[in-house]
Amino acid sequence: MTNLQNNSQFFMENLPILIPLILLEFGLMIAAVIHVLHHPHYRFGNKILWLVIVVVFQIIGPVVYFVFGRGDQA
Amino acid sequence: MSLLELHQAGKSFGSQQVLNNLEMAVPEGAIFGFVGENGAGKTTTMRLILGLEQLDHGTIQIAGRPVEYGGATTNQLTGYLPDVPAFYDYLTAAEYLRLCGQITGLPQGELDTRIKTMLTRVGLATGSRRIKGFSRGMRQRLGIAQALLNQPRLLICDEPTSALDPEGRNQFLELLASLRGQTTVLFSTHILADVERICDHVGILDQGRLQVCDTLTALKQQYAQPQLIWRFAQVDAANRFAQALAAQPNWGQVTTATQQVRLAYQGPAEPLIRRAWQLLLQMDLTPLAMEQVAPSLEQIFLKVVGQP
Amino acid sequence: MTWIMIKKEAREAWRSRRFLILLIVFLIFGLMNPLMAKLTPEIMKMSFGKQFSVPAPTSLDSWTQFYKNNSQIGIYLLAIIFGGTISGEVNRGTLVNLVTKGLPRRTVIVSKWLVITAEWLLVALVSFLVTWGYTAYYFPDQKSPHLWLAFLPLLLFGCSLTALIVLASTLARNSYEGLFMVIGYTIVLYLLSLFTDFKHYNPLSLINHNLTFLTKAGSLTPYWPALLVTGVLGALALLVANLKFARKQL
Questions:
Q1: Strands (E), chain B
Q2: Are B140 and B163 in contact (CB under 8 A)?
Q3: DSSP characters for B224-289?
């Protein structure tokens, strides 16, 4: 019970950081997901693989996709 | 003096010699058809002229100025259309032309009007589409637009028509032909019909040398012989007629191809045709067809390159 | 001419979304630093139990995270994104048209370096300001007095590294080769940093000793040879890149 209280207190305390952080991470993820769905040509891998990478690995996943995964036809 | 001159130009890639003391001159105002088989060294020659490859020995001059590898001074006189032009996909056609024009150093106001006229001329005037969505033909047309934007004295096109569909090819050739008198054009191809259609000068590259280099009319007079062709229903008849023809003194050279008999002759055709008919009557042979073939670049090419 | 190509590069950075991705990632870094500083004691408590006494986090912990992230991930992210900046254009043949129009080759190198460096300076600055803001808010202590003195060496190292990235991608045939060359360069610097006698000369000190610069007044001064070496290496990299690119087949 105290633990839960602690957690929610910690959460509230750090809201100024967490809100922009979550927004950015989700923004990046959603941008990557949309790009994966709209551009079915990848340098390697396939659609499912990239969707999993982009969604599961926060930050790193979308960056890896945008740098290595997306095909030349941008 | 010629606009473009190559002297003793030599180029090897490793142990493979591509150009062997190439001598070549393109006079100002010519539309020069640069003919050769695939791999004969046409692209290499063009890249040498543009300073994109290093010459092993010899010199290249454009309007009296030497071409330097990696240098850019002579490039201001030239426009270049590569066989597969590569653009920045994230730009629109107009933005790309603006980039090219600014690099050439065209003043702002003039550049605006030139971009507009050039885009209309090549049929890309519509809109703000980015190059990444362009088709092969559209890219080729943008390629010619960027090559002509600086109104070059020498336009160099590498196999410009081979990737186009018949209609695009037609339009492109007309565009090139419309430059006659304004711009000197050096244009490589292996499609001889294109050369015959628009070029006035022809150079044939084979085994690293320009085997012939002259005006098209002079070449035809010198190399090509008109031919008479008879077509028979049976191979046997064709062979008998060919033997009889070959036995005649001073008529010309006889070749056969299954049911066809070809006679390459010189001088007037009519007396020869009459005597050939007489021969056919004597032998009691009836050809299905007979035709007279005017000299073509293809004949010259095959003769020069030395293939049957 | 350089200005034309700078505009072209900037447009490329914007339209390819490259700059946006860099910016978002560095923004996330900036936010993560103070957060990680706050979270670490909590995590320690959770894993070792309540009795385990952990000192309360300070601004120093936040800046530790900042310099760790920048020297361990930020630098390599640059190499990953820009490792093919020259080799990519050479392979695609996009420079042929421009060079045959009279574009001097050194302009290509210089404009690329300028734009990449500007991108790096911008995102590093944004990340710095974000970390600074949150750190001042959550840890209002006086433990990290020399913020800029600690940050500037990182910026200088970055500018030198972008020059090296341009050189690597000039020599390389593709972006992977370019990336490996840059990684090779940092490995050499790391090996050199094992010889602590050289620490005042090693460029790597500029991104590894930032906490010292941050806390102790005048601690950067003995490192002036490292600053000099870093600058000279960067200039040298640009020079060699120019020489190599002048003879490169396009």
A1: 2-13, 16-27, 31-36, 57-62, 65-66, 78-81, 154-158, 184-189, 201-206, 209-215, 227-231, 253-257, 260-264, 289-293
A2: yes
A3: ---EEEEE-SSHHHHHHHHHHHHHSTTS-EEEEETTEEEEE--S-SHHHHHHHHHHHHHHT---SE
Tell me which residue range forms the domain holding A48: 2-69
Chain C residue numbers with beta carbons less than 8 Å from the beta carbon of B100 are 97-98, 101
Residue A47 lies in a domain: yes
| B78-81 and B154-158 beta bridge pairing | parallel
In angstroms, the separation between the Cα of residue A65 and the nearest Cα of chain C is 11
CB C67 within 8 A of CB A35: no
CA–CA separation, A53 and B30 (whole Å): 59
CA distance B133 to chain A (A): 9
Place of tokens 């035709």: B291
Q: Inter-chain contact C42–A27, Cβ cutoff 8 Å?
A: no
Q: Which amino acid makes up residue C59?
A: S
Please indicate if any CB of chain B lies within 8 Å of the CB of A38.
Answer: no
d(CA C59, CA C132): 9
DSSP A65: I
B90 has a chain A CB within 8 A of its CB: yes
The DSSP result for A8-25, as a single string, is HHHHHHTHHHHHHHHHHH
Structure tokens at B297: 């670049």
Domain membership flag for residue A74: no
Assign 3-state DSSP to chain B and report helix, strand, coil percentages, each to 5: 40, 30, 35
Q: B50 touching C, CB under 8 A?
A: yes
ipTM comes to 0.88
For CA atoms C201, C207, C209, C211, the dihedral sign is positive
A38 in a domain, yes or no? yes
Distance from CA of C237 to the nearest CA of A (A): 24
Coil, strand or helix: which one is B41?
coil
Q: Are C210 and C153 in contact (CB under 8 A)?
A: yes
DSSP symbol at C20 = H
Instruction: Give the mean pLDDT of chain B.
Output: 87
Q: Which chains share 3+ C-beta pairs under 8 angstroms with A?
A: B, C
> Does residue A36 lie in a domain region?
yes
pLDDT of residue B308: 45
Cβ contact (<8 Å) for A73 and B90? no
Burial of B194 (0-12, 13-18, 19+ CB in 10 A): buried
Note the maximum CA span of chain B.
Answer: 79
In chain A, the number of structural domains is: 1
Residues in C closer than 8 angstroms to B146, CB to CB, are: 97, 101
Q: What is the pLDDT of residues B65-111, one digit of tens each?
A: 999 887 767 888 889 998 888 999 999 999 999 999 999 888 989 99
The distance from CA C229 to its chain's CA centroid, rounded to whole angstroms, is: 16
| Half-sphere exposure in the Cβ direction for A70 (13 Å, CA) | 24
Token couple for A53: 């990478």
Q: Provide the residue type at C63 as one letter.
A: W
Q: Which residues of chain C have pLDDT under 70?
A: 50-52
Q: Which residue has the tokens 């996943």?
A: A61
Work out the end-to-end distance of chain A between its first and last CA atoms, rounded to an integer number of angstroms: 51
Interface touch A17/C27, C-beta < 8 Å: no
Distance CA(C29)–CA(B171), nearest Å, equals: 56
Q: Tell me the per-residue pLDDT of B109-121, one tens digit each, with 9 for 90 and over.
A: 999 999 999 999 8
Q: Which two tokens stand for residue B278?
A: 């007489």
